[in-house]
Prior knowledge:
six-stranded antiparallel β-sheet, 1 helix
Amino acid sequence: MAKLFVKKGDTVVVTTGKEKGKTAKVLEVSPKSNKVLVENVNIVTKHQKQKSQEDKGGIIKKAAPIEASNVMVICPDCGKATRVAHKDVDGKKVRVCKKCGASLDKADAKKVKKQAKTEKKVAKEEKVVETAEKPAKKAPAKKTATKTTTKKTTTKKTTKVEE
């Protein structure tokens, strides 16, 4: 059984196939077959026979599942199609957007934001400490350039013509 990165209720974009570029909501996830059922994507027609007087027969259109690798989750914060990363928040594994770092799980969104802020503060403090510990670099001595100019002297030759 494969662990899928997509959950029921996620908004996804189809990346390959005849339905490429369509954005829709996930209706059903099947980890055993590694397939997802996406709303109004991969619509197939089924010819159904009338089994009783109450049942209707005819041509029925319904959505068929597609391979899970053919969809990408859309981040609710940045609105871009993204790969999914995982992060531990309070001992719980949470799905996170690779592009902006926002949580893809609605229940854990606030916790992830809070943790991201504290991580940024810690990183900033470490950077300040690193710059304080490093000795100041000596500035290279300035070279003074002297310009030497040469004047071109032109001499006029005068020729006398004798008559």
